[in-house]
Amino acid sequence: TTPLEQLQDFGEHHVTGGLARLTKGIMTKGEGSHVYFQDGRKMLDFTCGIGVTNLGHCHPKVSKAAAEQCLRLNHAQCSIAFHEPYLRLIERLLPAMPDESLDSFFFWNSGSEAVEAALKMARILTGKQNIICMQGAYHGRTFGALGVTKSKTIYGEGVAPLMPGTFPMPFPYWHQHNLPPSTSSSVLTAHSLYQLHLLLAQQTAPSETCAIIVEPVLGEGGYIPAPKEFLQGLREVCDKHNMLLIVDEVQCGFGRTGSWFFVEESGVRPDILIMAKGLANGFPLSGVVSRRELTNKLKPGSMGGTYAGNVVSCAAACAVADVMREENVLENVQARSQQLFSALRTLQNDGTLSPYILDVRGRGLMVAMEFASSEPVGAVYDSAKSQKPVKKGLASRIAKKCIEKGMLLLTTSAYEVVRFIPPLNITQQDMEKGCGIFEEALREAVA
Ligand code: PMP
Question: Does the keyword Cell division apply (predicted)?
């Protein structure tokens, strides 16, 4: 055994059992759309480390900006003084905001921390306590974020009591309403908004409800873009009842769906917008954006964190924003999105495969394919009704086969869904290669 194989064994013994791992092996290098392993494997990365390395691994301009910053200043604590990259980053983000009212920024390290800050702000600023969230939502693993996470029991099993006062409503997704997959988005939207009205009448009074938190594209819960009428409906309810609309774009934001932020498509103004993941292309950084008029009401010292808005991460994020603009990355998202959708729709219409495929959906390069499933929705809308054959564990089997064939691919927490999260600057050739590997894996998995 080689020293790195020994290290792998060492890891199996000494790293917590609480972590799941998609593949064995030690990742040693990343370059563009590929990662390399100690055993010589070169893998096409359609996960981007769960939607993070949006400009590919180790983008030279991002790495250079971080390396130069590293030699200048590594840590400038945000409660001690401003540092330049923090402010330069705000300059770059302002023109990308989905609404010009969003002009007051606070940077953290992780998505979860940013969600915590948003929840606290909503309580402080409205003087109210309860929070409405979505079934299928994922907002993170800390106690507050976990309180509004409703996508899979494993995240919170044995952990309760979580933050109290969280009320889930159904997202406009057919699974959550016991309706067939072909149900139109306007019907789903009406069903969801009706449930919201019931919630406010029966369980949490508007006078006690401070906010609605929503992922405009449900992420871990199945990669489902919200119809714009749904987001508009949430905005109206928030306006009517003095509640804040918290939009979590940790996974779908920063170019992933082809615009800087997905919520832009609906014209809806968030009161608080949360971003992370692709923001610094791998360096830990998240952001909470709101209106000055609101954040001016927060007492100095009520927000903070030792590493929040780290100077190296902010320098990297400045470079990310520059590369996004200089290299017309959003245009590439549109082109590669069309290529990916067209490949997946061809599979969806293929005689052998179509019986298994329920849905191809998403936006930009946040795309999913859903298969007929027995768990956990079988009891609700089962395969007999949907006329689709069920292959239990199909999504995971496909992901495993993709890995054997040299491509990293993830499933989502909910249902039988595989998700495609390639780099936003992926080339046409690499996209073609990825689609080819996926097709082979899918054909073998259903055979
Ligand atoms: N919100 C959303 C929408 C997410 O997808 C995630 C992470 N998958 C989080 C919050 C939590 O972010 P982090 O893992 O950085 O804490």
Answer: no
